[in-house]
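Appendix C: a fully annotated inverse folding record. The material below is reproduced so that readers can follow the format used throughout the book. The structure is listed first as C-alpha cells, followed by the designed sequence.
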C-alpha cells in the first residue's frame, strides 16, 4: 500500500472529511452572526463521490481513521447511510464524528448502529445565557440532551471539546471539568485558533494551555500522561485518575512535527493542513473521469508539499481564506 508520506517523513493515517459547510449555530470564534455564503449544492461531493474517495484513502493510501465533521455534520442528509457505507469499507476505518450535538437525540443510536465508533460534542459553557451569547442560539439544553443520547447509544467515552475565551467563558474551566467528571465525559480544551470567517482572532483573548492548566490546577492534581504519539491533545490524569483531561494547544505548543492528518472539504478539495493556503482539487479530477491511480497520485503529490508547520507565529503568517467551518475542524 502506498502511504501518504510528506518530505519530513510524516505518515498520514487520519482523514477528516467535512460533510457540509452549513451550520445551525453561529459560534463567535467560527462564524459571523449572519452565517456565510454556503457552498452551492452542485459543488458538494455526492455520497457516491465521497465513498469513492474515502475507499481509495483506506485501500490505497493507508488512512486508518476517518472523522466526519463540518460545518455541522448532522445537517448532512443521509448521514446515517453514509456512515454505514464508510463502515463497510475494507480495511474498515475507525469512524468518528465531531458535532455541536443539536439533533443528536434523534439519531445517536442510528449512527452507532450504522458503525460510528466515537463522537466528540462541542460544549463551551454550562450557562444558558453564555451559550446564547457565544453561539447566538438558545440551545444549551439540546446539546446536553445530545450528550446523554450519545452515551445511551454506547458511543463511550463521549468526548467534549471546549474553547475558552477571555471574559466570556474562561471562568468556567473548573465547572466544565466537574460536569464532565460527574457525567463520565472526557473533556478536552482547545486553544482558540485564527480560523474564524471574520478574521477577528485576537491572541490576547485566547486562553493559553498554561492558563487553562493553572485554573484546573487550583483544585486538582494533574499529572501529564506519557505516550502522546500523534494525538493533538496532551492528556493529564486528574487526581490520580482514572479520569483524564486533555488540552489541545495548537497555538502555544504546536504539534505539527507529529501531524498525521489530512482534510477533505465538502466540495472535494484536499487540504494538507488546517492552515494550508493551497488545495488540491479532487472533485475536478473525479468529475473529469480520473482513474483511481490518477486520484491516488494527486493525493500523494498534495501531501508531499505539506509545510513543516502552521507558522502562526511567523511575521508572514496569513490566515487561510477558508474558515474552519468550511475546512472541517
Ligand atoms: N459543528 C461541529 C462542532 O462545532 O463540533 C463540527 C465542526 S467545528 C468547526 C469543529 C471543532 O472546531 C469544534 O469543537 C469547535 O469548537 C472548534 N473550533 C471552531 N472554530 C475554532 C477556532 N477558531 N479555534 C479553535 N477551535 C475552533
Ligand atoms: Fe457551527 Fe461548529 Fe462553527 Fe460552532 S464551531 S458555528 S457549531 S461549525
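Designed amino acids, in order:
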Amino acid at each position: 500500500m502506498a502511504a501518504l508520506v510528506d518530505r519530513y517523513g510524516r505518515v498520514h493515517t487520519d482523514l477528516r472529511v467535512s460533510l457540509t459547510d452549513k451550520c445551525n449555530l453561529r459560534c463567535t470564534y467560527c462564524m459571523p452572526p449572519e452565517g456565510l455564503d454556503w457552498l452551492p449544492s452542485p459543488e458538494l461531493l455526492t455520497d457516491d463521490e465521497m465513498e469513492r474517495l474515502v475507499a481509495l484513502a483506506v485501500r490505497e493510501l493507508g488512512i486508518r481513521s476517518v472523522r466526519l465533521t463540518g460545518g455541522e455534520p448532522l445537517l448532512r442528509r443521509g448521514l446515517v447511510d453514509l456512515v454505514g457505507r464508510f463502515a463497510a469499507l475494507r480495511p474498515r476505518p475507525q469512524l468518528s464524528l465531531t458535532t455541536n450535538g443539536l439533533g443528536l437525540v434523534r439519531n445517536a443510536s442510528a449512527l452507532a448502529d450504522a458503525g460510528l465508533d466515537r463522537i466528540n460534542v462541542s460544549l463551551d459553557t454550562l450557562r444558558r445565557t453564555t451559550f446564547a451569547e457565544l453561539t447566538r442560539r438558545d440551545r444549551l439544553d439540546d446539546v446536553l440532551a445530545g450528550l446523554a443520547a450519545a452515551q445511551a447509544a454506547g458511543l463511550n467515552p463521549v468526548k467534549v471539546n471546549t474553547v475558552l475565551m477571555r471574559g466570556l467563558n474562561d471562568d468556567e474551566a473548573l465547572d466544565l471539568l466537574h460536569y464532565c467528571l460527574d457525567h463520565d465525559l472526557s473533556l478536552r480544551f482547545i486553544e482558540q485558533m485564527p480560523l474564524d470567517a471574520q478574521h477577528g482572532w485576537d491572541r490576547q483573548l485566547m486562553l493559553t494551555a498554561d492558563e487553562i492548566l493553572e485554573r484546573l490546577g487550583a483544585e486538582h492534581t494533574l499529572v501529564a500522561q506519557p505516550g502522546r504519539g500523534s494525538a493533538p491533545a496532551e492528556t493529564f490524569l486528574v487526581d490520580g485518575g482514572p479520569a483524564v483531561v486533555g488540552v489541545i494547544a495548537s497555538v502555544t505548543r504546536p504539534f505539527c512535527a507529529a501531524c498525521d492528518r489530512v482534510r477533505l472539504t465538502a466540495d472535494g478539495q484536499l487540504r494538507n493542513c488546517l492552515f494550508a493556503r493551497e488545495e488540491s482539487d479532487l472533485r475536478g479530477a473525479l468529475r473529469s473521469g480520473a482513474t483511481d491511480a490518477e486520484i491516488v497520485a494527486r493525493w500523494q503529490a498534495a501531501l508531499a508539499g505539506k509545510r513543516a508547520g502552521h507558522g502562526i507565529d511567523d511575521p508572514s503568517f496569513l490566515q487561510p481564506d477558508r474558515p474552519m467551518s468550511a475546512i472541517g475542524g
